[in-house]
Amino acid sequence: MQDVILKVDGITKTFPGVKALDNVSFDIRPGEVHALVGENGAGKSTLMKVLAGLHQPDGGEIVYLGEPTNVSNPLDARQKGILLIHQELSLSPELSVAENIYLGAWPTNRFGVLRKKELRRNASAALEALGCGFGPDVRVGTLSVAMQQMVEIARAEAFRANVVIFDEPTASLTDAEKEQLFHTIRGLQARGVGIVYISHKMDEIFDITDRITVLRDGQVQGTIDTADTDLNNVTRMMIGRTLDAYFVKAKAEFGAEVLRVENLTKTGLFREVSFSVREGEVLGLYGLVGAGRSEVVETVFGVRRADAGKVYWKGGDIGLPTPRQSIDMGMALVPESRKEQGLVLMMGGRENTSLPHLSMFSELSVMNKSKELAAFEKYRSALSIKTTGPDQAVSQLSGGNQQKFVLAKWLCADPKLIILDEPTRGIDVGSKSAIHELIAHLAEQGLAVVVISSEMPEVLGVSHRVLAMSEGAVVAEFGGAQMTEENLIDAVSHHRGPMVAE
Amino acid sequence: MGQLIKNVLRRHGLLLAFLVFLAVVAVNAEAFLTPGNILDVLRQVSITGMMALGVTFVVLTGRLDLSVGSLLTLLTVIVVDQHNISGPFPAIVMTLLAGAAIGAFNGLLIGFVGLNALIVTLAMLSFLQGLVLFYSGGSNVNVQNAQDTWFAVFGRGSFLGLPVPVLLFLSGAIVAGLVLAFTTFGRRIYAVGGNETASIFSGINAPWTVFWTYVVSGLTTAIAAVIMGSRVMGAQNTIGQGYELTVLAGVILGGTSLLGGSGSIWRTVIGISMLGFIQNGLLLLGYPYYVQWLVTWAVIIIAVWIDLGAKRGRIFA
């Protein structure tokens, strides 16, 4: 076996106005896990799309198994043995596991009829090799996210992949599922597969990878052995400076109560949830995905309806408000999914910023463009948002800059309460710490802040008080010295209360 | 250089094809580019164009309105019949109200109940077809004392040398264009069409917004019916048949996306005018009128194709 399976040699890729990849070179050895890290917009996803045949490079070459290779499309890549496992899985929920493993490359006879037996047999073999606990006939839609990911990985076995690229594979996995995934990755590694591992989560990178290649602004900053480096060093390479104070906590000076929720219940989602938050206070809401955290805050904000419960705003009962009423009172919700819920992607920063407050930016229903531009410019500089202008579609911005526009659209109306649902998910380290600083700053200005996060260090780092949620209920509350990772894990994993009432 | 030509073709291919078509017709039919013929085309376009203004509002939210064809028939019958009964002014008011009411009903089912727009408006198309025959009892209606009424001004009059229907269409287009570009209502429409979930998370009442676009669509069709009734000075039971597709073809041809969130009134004005000149050109070249339908089909397919291509381009860029 060669000592290099795949070598990227001087790859360049230009999009209108941006050099996404600039003379990028790196190589993948058999049996290694090779991390690809960089801030959003550094070129990781472009590079991986070039490898998977979704983009054609403008210059440079890919040397695969010793031969210069042209990867023309994703199916071509897969058949050559290069497999990309996307953050958003590419499976058909209505089809069976076996059909999904071979999606687009089904064995057929000469009349084009599917050879089911062969399909099943091959799929079974691939699933067994991975030690999956489910068979080839299960409908994919009935599987959990982690199991669906295993179906994608089974393609690596089925197509005898030499290179497997993982893009943020643990984004929606629990800790136990993550361990299972790492086990599988080590299995692939032992078979001599070269693995590219893309992630924002540094602890994972130091846990599982052998080498790290750092990208910044489309250029390779260097490739280093994981054993020879540390977090500080990698971060410095990624952003060109060190991050000392990773978390900043706002001073604990609290004012009057802003929001109180009592016994909020929605059948099947959450039950009897109560909490309150004061001016200047950061309340953390921790729980695993599916614990009902987003559903609770979406209900408080008004985009979902509750079956029972009360919401008090500055002491007054406001019933269950509509989003319009919530916004007008001074509530803001930075939702979990910025692309689906947070932004109108084809609009520019200017129009997205004014969207929740059209009446504030208009007179007699006629939009006041100069007011909009003023707000846009104010937050562009205050949050240092990188955009070419007020009307550049936000779809063209990096995740971190998009998230800053979601913040801008709420901050421009001076809210009294801001709820941030996974505010730093999938964004780069630099933007992440900027958002943490912002949270502390807002609280010190007297805003009430609610932060939902699946990342324990984050939720502990920014909050004054943390509620732990599990299976739709608040199971514990921690403040002060009790705010430790052990207590949180204990609360959400050992809680065996009654399931959400059906 | 080759890349440049490719880009120009991709972006302006339809327009270039249209110019080539204009040249071919102009060479082969002398009457084509005469002022009289051009005004004729614009007069024809003013009816479909007026309808297309409202339909553009609907399409921008990512929805459809296929009921406008038979709504045009019904409202034309109503305006002519009521003209004979109660005079021009009450007839026009009644027609506008009826158009808005039927649009509101569509909007209620689509915006608030959340039913599929294609099905709701297709069913409405069929329902109104039936309603026309109920109303008219199957016979055509004509304006009585056609010499003594000012009703004819909307379809046949002219002002400063321009036909009144064309002026109505252009002023309607300006008003609609300003509403979409500069008001909060316009902004809400683009937001709902661009990302309905995100607009709801921003406190925008999406059902209400959708509801009003259908009211607008009903209203512009009612204005078109007044022009139509005034131009023909009568109404047949099939007068608006097929108009829903011509109108939709014009909107799409202009480049307003069926997926919602992108497009504009001036695009619709251009699209519907191009379609008018294509249809007129085909007639002048001696093709039978039904060739228009084949061409409408081709125009819809090509325009939707280009729209999809643009979207794909954006996704992979």
From TrEMBL, chain A:
SMART domains: AAA. It holds the Pfam family ABC_tran. Its main location: membrane. One of its GO terms (molecular function) is ATP binding. Keywords: ATP-binding, Cell membrane, Membrane, Nucleotide-binding, Repeat, Sugar transport, Translocase, Transport. The keyword Coiled coil does not apply. It is found in: Cell membrane. PROSITE patterns: ABC_TRANSPORTER_1 (PS00211), ABC_TRANSPORTER_2 (PS50893). One of its GO terms (cellular component) is plasma membrane. It is a peripheral membrane protein. Residues 6-242, 240-496 form the ABC transporter domain. The keyword Ligase does not apply. PANTHER family: CARBOHYDRATE TRANSPORT ATP-BINDING PROTEIN MG119-RELATED, GALACTOFURANOSE TRANSPORTER ATP-BINDING PROTEIN YTFR. This is Ribose transport system ATP-binding protein.
TrEMBL record, chain B:
It is found in: Cell membrane. GO terms for cellular component: plasma membrane. Its main location: membrane. The chain crosses the membrane at residues 53-80, 92-112, 118-138, 159-182, 211-233, 245-269, 289-308. GO terms for molecular function: transmembrane transporter activity. It is a multi-pass membrane protein. It holds the Pfam family BPD_transp_2. The keyword Repeat does not apply. InterPro entries: ABC_transp_permease. Keywords: Cell inner membrane, Cell membrane, Membrane, Transmembrane, Transmembrane helix, Transport. This is Ribose transport system permease protein/putative xylitol transport system permease protein. The lineage of its organism: Bacteria, Pseudomonadati, Pseudomonadota, Alphaproteobacteria, Rhodobacterales.
